[in-house]
Amino acid sequence: MELEAYFQGVDSEKVKTKNDNHPLLLGEVIDTYYQGGSFPLLEKKQIAILGVAEDRNAPQNEGCALAPDFVRKYLYGLFQGPNNIKIADLGNVKSGHTPEDTYFAVKTVVAELIDKNIVPVIIGGSQDITYANYLAYEALGQIINIVSVDSAFDIGLNANGINNRSYLSNIIKHKPNFLFNYTNIGYQTYFIDQDAIDLMNKMYFDVYRVGLVRNNLEEVEPLVRNADMFTFDVSSIRQSDAPGNNYASPNGFYGEEACQVVRYAGLSDKLSSIGFYEYNPVFDNGEQTAHLVAQLIWYFFDGFAHRKNDFPDRERKDSGGYIKYVVSIKDFTNEIKFYKSKISDRWWMEVPCPSGMQIKYDRQFLVPCSYKDYQAACKEEIPEKWWQVYQKFA
Questions:
Q1: Average pLDDT, the chain
Q2: Which of 34, 134, 336, 364 has its CA at a distance of 20 to 30 angstroms from the CA of residue 182?
Q3: What is the CATH classification number for the domain harbouring 9?
Q4: What is the pLDDT of residue 21?
Q5: Could you tell me if 351 and 301 lie in one domain?
Q6: Is the confidence at residue 271, as pLDDT, over 80?
Q7: Residue percentage of the chain with pLDDT more than 90
Q8: Residues 195 and 332 both lie in one domain
């Protein structure tokens, strides 16, 4: 497949940096498709950036289609650091005649990149592009977990069609369905319909209020480590740190907290695509938000460079690379098996999967957890993460 047909090159005049030509700047290190230049060779590339200038289904945040090049300007001005990742910037996906045409292009490109073992980093654009990202996994036949950092669920219970505030309901209703679990990190209760919260609970999805998350940020790492696909809405960051969004509010994550969460995403061996959405230069103050989104992407690169490749899948979990702990709980028929990596000291727990389905759910029945979950099981408390996955298999 010739991916070049889906892209237009980056305008170099829009992404010039103050320290042009320093050899260690990302703008010099990244293999970028510039207008009039050649399309990057994908051989040996590990990450591919793609801008998606689409906001036609974001009626209350028009202007976010301008985001990709604003973010690039600041991303290219950051130093590479100690990382030596092979990155290509494929340019901006050509806008289709309709948003659905753009979705098709994104789906096709993302599926091709994932199939080549290249992680797509999407710079939106509006968050309904997450739906196109999800469709790429359908094309690959992969059952996945989605983690969203967002102040709302974007489930749009009363919405018609798809937009940036209702894309999740389209994913949930899509047939055939390849979504195993959805996790929201950082929702703010006053933005959420109680019916939507009830629906999340009925579907055994994981949702965590921003206050709870901020009080114990380290516990976010296992949640993020469970993701195949990660979607980040800039509105999850408080307005003082990220004013460039029409949904920005006084509360949310601080910029450095958001960077930590995204670094966790980079560290996850399982995660195979990520997108940053809803940044709108129209509302930005001194392009502060563009700079922050660029730093979020930098932290993803940093996490990616430190991946340990120690996810204990079905074939590896009983190898010598893990310490296995088995916990019995009184009056509970199932033992809970924990695996601790000797490489990273990270923890997973095994959820009993019906016979003959372990291949299908190879990436779901081993659930990332923390030492606190093991401690809870030792106190005869069933970890909530274990129970929610168990209910889906029951």
A1: 94
A2: 336
A3: 3.40.800.10
A4: 75
A5: no
A6: yes
A7: 85
A8: no
User: Do residues 256 and 299 lie in contact, with contact meaning Cβ atoms separated by under 8 Å?
Assistant: no
309-333 pLDDT, tens per residue?
Answer: 999 987 788 888 999 999 999 888 8
Please check whether residues 334 and 239 belong to one and the same domain.
Answer: no
Residue type at position 22: H
Structure tokens at 171: 């994913």
Tokens 């029409």 belong to residue: 246
Which of 305, 336, 355 is the last residue before a domain boundary? 305
Please tell me what DSSP assigns to residue 70.
Answer: H
| Span 147-205, pLDDT tens digits | 999 999 999 866 678 999 999 999 999 999 999 999 999 999 999 989 999 999 999 99
Peptide bond into 51 cis (omega under 30): no
pLDDT of res. 157: 67
Assigned domain for 314 exists = no
Q: What is the pLDDT of residues 36-69, one digit of tens each?
A: 999 999 999 999 999 999 999 999 999 999 999 9
Answer yes or no: is pLDDT of 20 > 80: no
CA distance 39 to 26: 18
Considering the domain architecture, whether residues 227 and 135 belong to the same structural domain is answered as yes
Cα(270)–Cα(13) distance, rounded to whole angstroms? 36
Same domain, 226 and 193: yes
| 311 part of a folded domain | no
Domain of 359?
A: 322-393
Token pair of 393, please?
Answer: 């298999």
Domain count, the chain: 2
Question: Do residues 52 and 143 share a domain?
Answer: yes
> Backbone phi, then psi, for 94, in 5-degree steps?
-65, 130
Please, are residues 126 and 162 in contact by the beta-carbon 8 Å criterion? no
| H-type alpha helices, 144-287 | 167-173, 194-202, 210-215, 220-225, 255-267
Strand pairing class (273-277; 119-124): parallel
Tokens 């290219």 correspond to what residue? 76
Q: Give kind and range of the element (H or E) at residue 182.
A: strand 179-187
Which three-class secondary structure state does DSSP give residue 208? strand
pLDDT value of position 161: 84
* Residue 299 is assigned to a structural domain of this protein: yes
Q: Do the domain assignments include residue 313?
A: no
Token couple for 317: 């979990």
